[in-house]
Amino acid sequence: MDRPMNCEILATCSALGYLEGDNYHKESDCLESVKDLIRYLRHEDDSRDVRRQLGASQILQNDLLPLIVQYRQDKALFDACIRLMVNLTQPAVLCFGKVPDDPVFTHHFMEVTSHLQAYKEAFASERVFGVLSETLYNFLQLDWEQRQEEDNLLIERILLLVRNVLHVPADPCEEKKVDDDASIHDKVLWAVHMSGFDDLVKFLASAQSEQQWSMHVLEIISLMFRDQTPELLVSAGHSRSAEEKQRDLQELEALRQKENAEKRSRTLQRGTRHSRFGGCFVVQGLKAIGDNDVIYHRRLHKFKSYTHDEGKAVRRVPKRNQRALECKDKPRSALNVRLFLREFCVDFLENCYNRLMYLVKENLIREQTQQHDETYYLWALSFFMAFNRGNDFRADLVSETMSIRAFHFIERNVTNYYEMLLTDRKEATSWSRRMHLALKAYQELLLTVNEMDRSHDESIRQSSNVIKSNIFYMMEFREIFLTLLRKYDETKQPLTYLKDLVETTHLFLRMLERFCKGRKNLVVQKKRVKRKKSHNRKKQLVAETSSEALAETWKIVEEELRLSESLTGSIVPFDAASEIPLEEQRIEAMVRVQDALLAHTGPEALALLRAARSVWPDGNVFGSSDVEPEEELELLKEILHANLPRSTTETLVEEEDDGAEFEEEELESIQVSETDFNFKDFIKRFANPGIVRPYLFMLRTYSKNTPHTNHCVVRMLHRLAVDLKMDALLFQLSVFHLFNKILSDPAAEAYKELVTFAKYVLNRFFSVVAQNNKAFVELLFWKNVGAVREMTEGYSKDGEGKKVAWSEEDEEELRTLYMEHRDSDVPDIVETLLPLLSNNSRTRRQVVTQLVRMGLVVNAKDFHVFPYRKGTGIVLWTEDQEEELQMLFEEFKDSDDVLGNIMKKVTAKRSRARVVDKLLSLGLVSERRELYKKRRRAPGKSSGVGMTEEEFLSGLTQDSPDDSVGGHDDDEEEEDDSEDSEEDEEQEHKNSQNVVKRSQSSHVGVDRRADVGAIVNSLMQEGMSGPLLWIQNCLNKTANDREDDGLSQPVPLVPLSEENEEAMENKTFRKLLGKLGMRAPANEQETFWRISDKLSPLQLRSAAAALTPGEDKAECSEGLSASNAEEDEDEKDTSGEQRAQALRALLLARKRKNQTKDAGVCERLSYALQNKILDSSAAVNMDADAGEDSDGEDISAPVKRRRKMLLIDDEDDED
User: Fold this and answer.
1) Per the CB 3.0–4.6 Å rule, which of 557, 589, 796, 943 could disulfide with 602?
2) Whole-structure pTM over 0.70, yes or no?
3) How far is CA 655 from the centre of its chain?
4) Is the Cβ–Cβ distance between 1026 and 1062 less than 8 Å?
5) 3-state secondary structure 114-158
6) pLDDT tens digits, residue range 1112-1163?
7) What are the backbone angles phi and psi of residue 676, rounded to the nearest 5°?
8) Is the per-residue pLDDT at 757 higher than 90?
9) Residue 472: which of 398, 539, 407 has the closest Cα?
10) How far apart are CA 366 and CA 1093, in angstroms?
11) Selection from 124, 135, 137, 141 nearest residue 72 by Cα
């Protein structure tokens, strides 16, 4: 800004007033001058010259603060001064957008920061905060109806002003304080406390009517505790515990041992001669610049530190490769400040924490906050939960953030921060700090859950188990540590981040291991990406097809077209939904015709050609309208041999793994499944050089680490080297150099765990060296699991594991053999080609892969690599097996169950379908019906000959449920002609069991309905008709779904209303669910009751019908059952008389047949008898339909069919 403007600013500042002693005298136009300054700040340039000039003139210290203290009753002036101070105290980062790179703007940035630090020192006054507290208190006394818009704006500006003042960073050059000395930030906090402003902050956090200030309150609280740690606040005012004293004594003892060891080494290194006579030595085996050995001119005790790099210029490390800067340790605040902050934490946890965190979380989810405001939430979660753990842990004080939602929120933010860390490289430091905050919050959640496990309250321990089961179940919560360790970057993430990551991983693994030990099995979620195949496009050949193959294809297609009489109908040669114009789709239609010809589907190709001719008649591209059949054949032949342009996006071919399978990829979907968790398998995933390296990087600073951090590192390395027996993973030169440093450390006694582990790894290495002399070379490289196995168990031979090359002669041989046997009837063409190849070392996978690469087949899945069923390991029949099958068939061909006896005696166990197919191919049977099991009738009962009338009548009128079921089973045996015999037979067996259950349901369900009805009536009297109706609807819906889908899966009963939730807690209601066949939660991983997958749709509907009680219905059902019983008795008498008459007529007919041998008379009598019995059966059916007993109908129907079949058999015997 130019010079005249500076004069205007100075004149405006002078017009505010003047300070005389402790009194400030304002000018008449003071308010207008304040508004002018606000206007100047609004129009300042990028260098922030107005802000810098106002800071240099100390307008805030000399004018604005005295104005608000003495003239607080002037509302307009007070409001204008607050507005101006909010603008002046704005953080420098917000003023410049970021920390500038330009030297000039960096100077301006530092100047603005220095002015802000001066402002903060001026605000360390009880009078200033007393005025702000009193003003804020007066506004908060008003109800929200009485407040005006200006009042709310002033409240927000006061909160922003306090936020800006607390945000000002400390000056490291000026504030070189020691512990327990008050800094400027402590003075401001003490002024806040003495003025009562902290109590107003707690009121704003807890009041329901002030929830719109939740984010401002959380920012102020986080800035108040900026320099504090939860451990220091917990211990404030308390004497040191015995554990703390013991820990300090151990640290002092380690330092004392290290100092004594250094003194002893210096004493031994001190020689008898004067230091000017150091000596001159020749180092044998160590070459200098030339061919001679190195000449050493110093004392021998310093030779250990000798290096060729001495005297060389230190190589500058590029900025992008420099390590991330560590956060400096902050001095401990004054005791009185820590005491008042401790009391603030206690009150905040008891009265404000849960409510404030809920409001902030809702605002973050609904995106009603500013960018990066979630960092305040993450900080508050980790800080106050850590304070709660150390200060008489109470789970109810932090119940809002102890949930799976909190874990999911943090995990999602960690993932987002890591992605931004990779993409936004300019702001990588900021994203790294946010990521560290999220990791600390995740660590504190795990520590709190671990603390809940040690609670004396059983309900808290159960809640902890539920939370852990959900955490360990979700795949994202288990995989997060593997990802963070593998992606650690020391140039972007500081060592403190790695320390927290290592300790959090140790805690998680320890909790997971303890959780698995108490259970036989743990079911966890598993996700995998499934690549779906394109179904809307036909498979197309990628490679060029030879002319010989095209000629062979045309011969097959031409013969097929000449013999075919029908064409495929309703074929559309274009895509109406495509964005490509219709006229431009002619080439695509031509390609479709060519593909149909290559696929040997001649009728489809001809139908496509004729359909395309009707769509595009112009130009006779697809032939003229009056084309002859022979001309059509010639046109198809030209299309087959034409080189048509194909779109590169039609087929997406991807080689998976070793190239064995090619498939078209259209999209990817994530499949979620469940699997049994194995802790050892999970630890194996940490056996990776990318994960081991961060641990070793952390181990380099073992002397500065805490004992707990060193324990976490050694415990993970112990899991890999000892538990998994992968100690060779640590056989690396840099690791051994670190171990040598630890073993030679004078204070090594203080690191006993590290020393023991280092000795173990070294002993293992030298034992491996005795067997493998190449182990020294392996020290130069990091090794994966495969290299570790080879190093310890032996190296593989040269050429193993490599892909076998195919020469041009081999490819031509494979192409010729494939073309010869492609149209043969062999079940597996690959097995046929393998013995015919000149190279007998080819495997099936290699042949299939090469066929796909040569373009002879489209997909490796076209070959059934495993054509046999699971459980059998046989594909082809050998000659001995065929002879054995022929012998068994000759032995049992006259038995009642030929196939069953063969299946019992055959040596090579195969499915029934495979055996039937082989019998048909050998010509031993002409059709499958010959292998059906024959029914053996009881002697004397196959016909009416030799039987008395009473015996025959009792045999026909026998009406037990067992007979009906047996007849049904016989019918099923006759219909056993499915190709997939094993699966179909199991399904038919299930169907037969369902029939048995249906036949018995009418007898078993009576008692059950009586018990259920009593329970339902009692629940209805308690007013639970709504939950009963809910259960009934769930049962009916599940029954419909199982009938439609044909699948049975457990269906959870999720209560969505309070009425249903209360019903699920009722013991009588749960007893009813158990009576109906519902399943209670099996373990803590299940929360809801479930409809069992073993219940059939009929059973589900029966259970649903049992939930409809009522006295009227009971009386009605009793009346109906009584009337049905009477009708059944009458029908039984009538049908009995008709059966007796029919049987007498049948016996009389047979008697006449024996005497007169008149077949015509017997035929007429049999026909008349059949009509009488069928009429009687129809009458029974009509009467049965009039009733409501459906069970009786299901039972009687098979009996009637059986009677009819017996009569027909008798008629055949007479013929």
Assistant:
1) 557
2) no
3) 26
4) no
5) HHHHHHHHHHCCHHHHHHHHHHHHHHHHCCCCCCCHHHHHHHHHH
6) 444 434 443 444 444 444 444 444 555 555 555 555 555 554 544 444 434 4
7) -75, 135
8) yes
9) 407
10) 40
11) 135
